[in-house]
Specification:
Helix content of chain A: 25-40%
Structural class of chain A: alpha/beta
Radius of gyration of chain A: 17 Å
Mean pLDDT of chain A: 86
CATH topology of chain A: Rossmann fold
CATH architecture of chain A: 3-Layer(aba) Sandwich
Number of domains of chain A: 1
Oligomer: heterodimer
Number of strands of chain B: 12
Number of domains of chain B: 2
Largest sheet of chain A: 6 strands, mixed
CATH class of chain A: Alpha Beta
Radius of gyration of chain B: 29 Å
Shape of chain B: elongated
Mean pLDDT of chain B: 89
Low-confidence stretches of chain A: none
Shape of chain A: globular
């Protein structure tokens, strides 16, 4: 099976077991696909995302990412693994306000030890592909919400990760901009050797999904193949 | 990641400047107060420091510091001269007579009576006007520049002016740059035989014996032997200066006064810098969280925080020291503050203190970032 992430009987509790965030999640995320995690607030979507990405430790069960058991790795190895293989798009963009757009894009490369100048140059080139060449030297506060999210998207893919994790990428954007960002996300991110996971409440972007996993009360209740109709329309052959 | 750390630091101009101001202020206050404190305490020993041609000071065993003197007997001078390895020994007289200008203005003065034959104890190399040899003229005195300017604030320096020392006439034959004394009294030099006539007669008049060790003899060892042989206290110039300074440190409120100011500077530095830097980090927690999520190692984040704190520390310290140096450059030309200079030791000491402040301020921030869960960035 061509799996980027595999979770089995995954549980996560907080406050010494007082709060059950995940109650035995089973989920497969395939390469070359965009998987949406949907469900009501508090159902455990973001917690699942954090456990998959190795940002939170699981309580029980098993999770494999890119063929590796993250939980078995040391903290240092986990950070290095994340740096190499995972890209993030956050709900609030989380751009560094003192850096220009291109510098923000270059952060994962610089964190991986690349020299500043070539990394920023790569950032400028990537922004140009996203239609933001003229905004490469702008600070985040000088950008609109949609532009900021495009910068965040570029930052998530610049180091060629195998897994891209997006947390509510359109919730801070209006409908049109949200659609544009999702369009770009699919264009820039989706490849045969990469998987994209998106946590969202926004039903307007469901049509970009290959698979939709519905969560409720800490469990994945059902996984529905969706076929990404929006992508078929938006990217004509 | 260094440039990211520095850009994060300078991105919030108000906080950045606030941090620098705090360190600059604390550095300035520390270096300034330590230097003034050291300068004032050093002034208590100014007459000792100015005697460069004698190795040893011999005095009554009960003498605690230079400003309170019990006279020695004339025979004590002969006893000191009788100790082996004493190259020479001469008298020195010290008293506080009143000196009065022709217009009636008067001040208490520090009078030093120098050995008539050798003029040992004179401020060699510090003559601003006149000749040391003229001190051998009748009624001749040397007066320090600050004292001269008290009586004649304006105009050219002029030799030959006459004054009254207690009720005796004296004539100024030289003006010297004596080290500033602790009290703002003029410093006056005359011959010993003349000086004793200016003040009320006692059976004994000699304040100190100044002595020189024979070539190759350690002054400290000789001082020990003089003390044993004569029952008097014999000290090297340095030891005597320290004893005088320690007296003032122990018996006046000066250290407490300066200590409070220095303490305030330390508290301001540590608390304000620590708090401001901590708040700066707290406000950037999301950014640090994003960096953690992206895969920036804790070690790198610690390095970034230390770099930010060190940058603020170095810039603030440099500005503080610059202001401090400028302060003393300006004030050293004023008579009341002459001789007060910034101490190199204060520069080094303040650098160590600023480093400590920076480290203390960083520790709280580092701890906060290390315990930060990167998952925080997913909480909208």
């Amino acid at each position: 099976m061509n799996l980027a992430v595999s979770a089995r009987a995954l549980t996560k509790t907080f406050q010494n077991g007082g709060v059950h965030a995940l109650r035995g999640v089973d989920l497969d995320i395939r390469y070359g696909e965009m998987t949406l995690l949907v469900g009501p607030s508090g159902c455990g979507k973001t917690t699942l995302l954090c456990v998959i990405a190795g940002l939170l430790d699981k309580t029980d069960g098993e999770v494999t990412m890119l063929g590796q058991r993250i939980a078995d790795q040391s903290a240092r190895d986990r950070v290095a693994f994340r740096r190499r293989h995972v890209g993030f798009v956050f709900q609030q963009f989380n751009l560094l306000p003192a850096l220009t757009a291109a510098e923000n894009v270059a952060v994962p490369l610089i964190a991986a030890g690349h020299k500043r100048e070539p990394a920023v140059k790569q950032g400028v080139e990537l922004l140009a592909r996203l239609g933001m060449a003229e905004r490469a030297t702008a600070l985040p506060r000088e950008l609109s919400g949609g532009q900021q999210q495009r910068v965040a998207l570029a930052r998530a893919v610049i180091h060629q990760p195998s897994l891209i994790i997006c947390d509510e990428p359109t919730s801070a954007l209006d409908a049109v901009t949200g659609q544009q960002v999702m369009q770009l996300l699919t264009e820039v991110s989706l490849r045969e050797d990469r998987a994209v996971v998106v946590v969202t409440h926004d039903s307007r972007i469901f049509d970009f999904a290959d698979t939709i996993a519905h969560m409720e009360d800490g469990r994945v209740e059902r996984v529905v193949p969706h076929g990404a109709p929006a992508r078929r329309v938006a990217t004509p052959t | 990641m260094h440039f990211i750390a520095l850009r994060m630091l300078t991105g919030d101009r108000a906080k950045y400047l606030g941090l620098i101001f705090t360190i600059a202020f604390a550095s300035f206050l520390l270096a300034n107060q330590v230097s003034i404190f050291a300068g004032i305490i050093k002034r208590t020993a100014s007459q000792i420091v100015d005697v460069v041609d004698a190795d040893l000071w011999i005095m009554d065993p009960a003498t605690e510091y230079i400003d309170e003197v019990k006279p020695l007997k004339e025979t004590d001078l002969l006893r000191v001269r009788g100790v082996a390895d004493v190259a020479w020994a001469v008298r020195l007289f010290k008293s506080l007579p009143r000196i009065t200008a022709p217009d009636g203005r008067f001040r208490q003065a520090i009078l030093l009576g120098l050995d008539d034959a050798t003029l040992i104890g004179a401020p060699h190399g510090k003559l601003r006007l006149g000749r040391l040899e003229d001190l051998r003229d009748p009624d001749a005195i040397l007066i320090d520049y600050a004292g001269y300017r008290y009586f004649w604030p304006d105009g050219e320096l002029e030799l030959g002016r006459t004054m009254e020392m207690n009720d005796r006439r004296v004539k100024i034959v030289g003006i010297v740059d004596a080290s500033a004394p602790f009290a703002t009294f003029p410093v006056v030099f005359s011959r010993y035989s003349q000086a004793v006539l200016f003040v009320g007669r006692e059976r004994n008049q000699m304040s100190f014996v100044l002595a020189k060790a024979a070539p190759g003899v350690a002054p400290a060892a000789l001082a020990e032997r003089i003390s044993q042989a004569t029952g008097l206290t014999a000290l090297t110039g340095d030891a005597w200066a320290w004893r005088t300074m320690k007296y003032y440190l122990k018996n006046t409120g000066i250290p407490v006064n300066f200590g409070i100011t220095i303490g305030i500077a330390l508290i301001v530095g540590i608390v304000v810098m620590g708090q401001t830097f901590y708040l700066f980090t707290i406000e950037n927690l999301k950014q640090f969280g994003a960096l953690k999520a992206i895969g920036v190692a804790d070690r790198t984040l610690v390095g970034m925080i230390l770099l930010q704190a060190l940058t603020v520390g170095v810039i603030g310290y440099s500005i503080g020291m610059g202001i401090c140096a400028a302060f003393f450059e300006i004030t050293k030309h004023n008579l009341p503050t002459r001789g007060l200079v910034v101490l190199p030791e204060a520069f080094i000491g303040v650098a160590v203190v600023v480093l400590a402040i920076v480290i203390v301020a960083s520790l709280l921030s580092i701890r906060r970032v290390l315990v930060l869960e990167p998952a925080v960035v997913f909480r909208g």
